[in-house]
Amino acid sequence: MNILVWHVHGSWLTSFVQGPYTFLVPVTPDHGPDGLGRARTWRWPDTVREATPGELRDAPIDLMVLQRPHEIELAHRWTGRRPGVDVPAVYVEHNCPDASAVDTRHPLADRTDVTLVHVTHFNRLMWDNGRAPAAVIEHGVIDPGPLWTGEEPRAAVVVNEPVRRGRTTGTDLLPVFARAAPLDVFGMGTAGLADRLGLPPDRCRTRDLPQGELHPAMARCRLYLHPVRWTSLGLSLLEAMFLGMPVVALDATEVREAVPDGAGVVSNRIDVLEDAVRRFIADPAYARATGEAARAAVQARYGERRFRDDWERLIKEVTR
Question: By C-alpha distance, which of 40, 23, 32, 22 is closest to 68?
């Protein structure tokens, strides 16, 4: 089976392309958003093959996996085939609604020929899916191993473009948490964050690392902090749990489902979260035990094998 899928979310796609198929990933000369091609920072199998728009015109395609609204027209233009009409198609919705969840209708809500796949049950509930057949396939993460050492009494945060995204990612809360522990903020567009927040450099270090260096660097921190207010369940949170890190997180969106009791501290009370950060910093043994519970929980629910099995069932259903 040949599956057409755009390189949009590298972490998610890394798990998806482990399946037993050939994956056609569009590539353009400028390697722009619609033609990134193969990943350069993740390890993908040889079954992931780049294809130019011209090559897609004649390529055999058994399933189209769409992730952005404009890909419906783009797929038709580049392949000459209509998603959901000429070729089976699914649409993976990675995000929560940007505006009011009460009033936000999904772009595919009026279509019945493309299955809408949400990555969390929260997302499915918040979007108005209309007539679209909707399913949920929760994240699956390739296990990086129990790398946690917690040797540095710091809290790790992973967020891209924290200044631009502001309250969405809880950037405004970082000065509060910096009182409880110095922060290591990993991600793209983090340079100058300490100055923007009025924090001393040692209380808010920023690091934009290659993917291969990210997990070991996170794992040296005592805990993982997830101050996100409104976004889909972050893969970085799940990855931190796989590393064996204790987590402190806002009780928002799908977090409560991912972090059961004993695997971390989840609350919407800032004082409770601050106290949790301080306790993990002060008590490495408690941090280790909590991180071990977090790893066991995430392995049970968000493992790569379960993810692949869920997709295998859906693909067979959609393409039969």
Answer: 32
